[in-house]
Amino acid sequence: MRVVLSIFLVGGLVITAAWFLGAQPPPPVTAPAPVITPAPGCRLGGGSTTVPEPTKILTRRVDAAWTRIETWLAVHAPRTAARWNAPAPAAALSALQREVGVELPGDLVATLRRHDGSSAGGFVLPLAYRPMSVGEIAGHTRRMCSGPGQPGWDGRFVPFAVDGGGGLLYLDQRGAGSLGEQFDEGPGPGRWPTGLSELLEQTADLLEEGTGPLADRYRPEVDAGWLRWRIR
Description:
Elements: H1 2-20, H2 56-76, H3 78-81, H4 90-100, H5 106-114, E1 130-131, H6 134-145, E2 157-162, E3 168-172, E4 178-183, E5 186-187, H7 196-208, E6 218-223, E7 226-231
């Protein structure tokens, strides 16, 4: 017992002496801050405000596909048909292109001029991808480009639709605006149409006739005026 007390007394004296002599305890050891490398190709806020005009042929193609989709919904799923957002104004499209830092695809511009996305509970592309508004597209682009991002993501991808689990559909502006799918763990399996206009046409075929390349995977159902997609 006396030995233990002696040890405590000696330790106390040492600490007291160190305090009087101005000795400082060693600084805590901290791990270095992680280095966050944005996804390649990201130029947030560096895009042009002049949005290229889609060709007349492309605009007619996109508008025709949307007319078919809207007409089917109005007849068969009126509750879904009532939940479109208003068209995106020109100023919003200019701000979006500046924010994402890459030229907007022509078929996406034509689509946003018709509907600035779909509101919650509204129309979704197969299987559950909801067309995003201008603000949502900008927000998802910032999220993907402001940190380490996700495997395979590139800043020249322009997201345009989102599902409830964090998946995205995007248009790849490194080339001809091909369509891709992205999950948290990386790119999707690459089984989508080549572009947005083709996806809209295939969706219209699936709604009207139950035919087309998407028909082997999905089928539309209507529940009390709401469109639902089912996996075959």
